[in-house]
Description:
Blueprint: E1 4-12, H1 18-31, E2 37-43, H2 50-60, E3 64-68, H3 75-85, E4 88-93, H4 105-113, E5 118-123, H5 130-148, E6 160-163, H6 164-167, H7 180-183, E7 191-196, H8 211-229, H9 233-262, H10 270-302, E8 310-315, E9 318-324
Parallel strand pairs: 1-2, 1-4, 2-3, 5-7
Antiparallel strand pairs: 4-6, 5-6, 8-9
The chain binds uridine-5'-diphosphate and magnesium ion.
Transmembrane segments: 234-256, 271-296
GO molecular function: undecaprenyl-phosphate 4-deoxy-4-formamido-L-arabinose transferase activity
Domain Glycosyltransferase 2-like: 7-169
Amino acid sequence: MEKVDLSVVIPIYNEEENLPILYERLKKVLDQLGKTYEIILVNDGSTDRSWEIIKELSQKDPHVVGVNFRKNFGQTAAMSAGFETARGDIIITMDGDLQNDPEDIPKLLEVLDEGYDIVSGWRKNRKDAFISRTLPSRIANWLISKVTGVHLHDYGCSLKAYRAEVAKNLDFYGEMHRFLPALSKAIGAKVTEIPVKHHPRIYGKSKYGISRTFKVLLDLILVKFLLDYRTKPLRILGGSGAILFMFGTLILLYLIGVKIFGGEDIGNRPLLIFGTLFFLSGIQLISTGIVAELITRTYYESQGKRPYIIKEIIRDQKFEVVNRGLVEEKVH
Ligand code: UDP
Ligand code: MG
């Protein structure tokens, strides 16, 4: 497979008016970079003419790669398919609705070259409705930064640049694309952000509403778990389980003592409920932790992943960059 320097990945869901303009603007910027490139347009089950337009563009210009989904699988899935298709050493992602500006791409690349693995855009001057979009997103960003320890102002900005070896090693399920910079911490990526331009949407409609904020918060719990306990789930589940189990046992022993030696009736004591509850949920948590440990092993082994990544090795006084532990590209 022929390599290129740069792959631009764009998920497309009903963006027929935007596509031709997007293509022209993007091409203008990319042609000036003096790099080889491809534009990967992933059609996420559009019901308008988007795919016809992508096909036309790809006929006209061999830089354009079209990927067509059978149905709408969502923006994250479209990005994932784009990453898999990408042949570039660097992958740029952006939206297909002209809200991101291709003119920011050279700046992203420049900063990436300073030694980062991910450069994320920050829509400092965001042009979306304040109450329904910008405000909830500010709160969410603050929370995500606190919880994950990866500090970005704007997780939701799609305009980002990734080194391919990092991008291809991120798993994304659900609507996880905004968490990629946070998840990349698990593989030791260096992440930074730069302010980028943002334009109001002129053609087509936004595909999301306020309900997204709540989904994002749920995902955050999973991300926290994946970041801190992915390789040691028993620590958190079993740890809290053990504490509960201990308390439960103590309470129950006490009650048994009261019953046998004190001859008191214990059936109506609230402590009995607590003791039983703690005892049982303790056992539950410990067993869940053990099951999670087993699943973790399957997770790493089935994908040929390792729970560590070696960056470089010095052998026979020679320096090798290995990146061992990152999944190598599948050879078909
Ligand atoms: N998108 C997609 N699949 C979806 C929803 C959105 O591929 O199910 C694309 C959409 O075409 C756009 C990008 O994802 O290129 C961002 O979507 P949108 O502009 O609606 O999000 P917003 O900017 O409002 O957060
Ligand atoms: Mg948009």
